[in-house]
Amino acid sequence: MALNFDTINLVDFVVKQGNGVKGLIDSGLSKVPDVYIQPIDRRISKTNNIDAAKIVSLPLIDISQLDGPEHDQVEKALVKAAETVGFFHVVNHGLTIQVIEELKDATRQFFNLPPDKKLVYQKGITSSSLVVYGTSIEQEWRDYLIMIYNSDDDAYKYWPDQCK
């Protein structure tokens, strides 16, 4: 039976119980809660389309140049892309397809954990600033996991087992 989020406390279910947005989906959600619905004027439609030129001109950043004489130019390109477009396409990062697939698998494993196992990493609960799990109560609904790498020792001490 699908939960009706008009009659229960959405913030309690999503945030405090650690279910996250994934928990909403897994609950058999029959209706998207109003807080997650984009206003009509912000939705993509035939009259409000994404500019195709912006998609084609997605900034391409060659990360391999960060270790060379072009470091400052690459750094400026990263900042400009983040400020103007909000994201960019990274190439020559050195990650193999295998590593990328393992990363995706580790991420799936983490987000498939029971809520109580994810909650220990929630901001305000976790004792570490190196790992933070959270969710959003806004139209761009998402769950997120932030992991900061300082050293192998810190990673093994603080990161979730699924992500090591």
UniProtKB/TrEMBL annotation:
InterPro entries named in the record: DIOX_N, IPNS-like_sf
One Pfam family per UniProt: DIOX_N
Occurrences of domain Non-haem dioxygenase N-terminal (ranges): 58-161
Domain of life of the source: Eukaryota
Keywords: Iron, Metal-binding, Oxidoreductase
GO molecular function ontology, one term from the record: metal ion binding
Protein's UniProt name: Feruloyl coa ortho-hydroxylase
Organism expressing this protein natively: Thalictrum thalictroides (Rue-anemone)
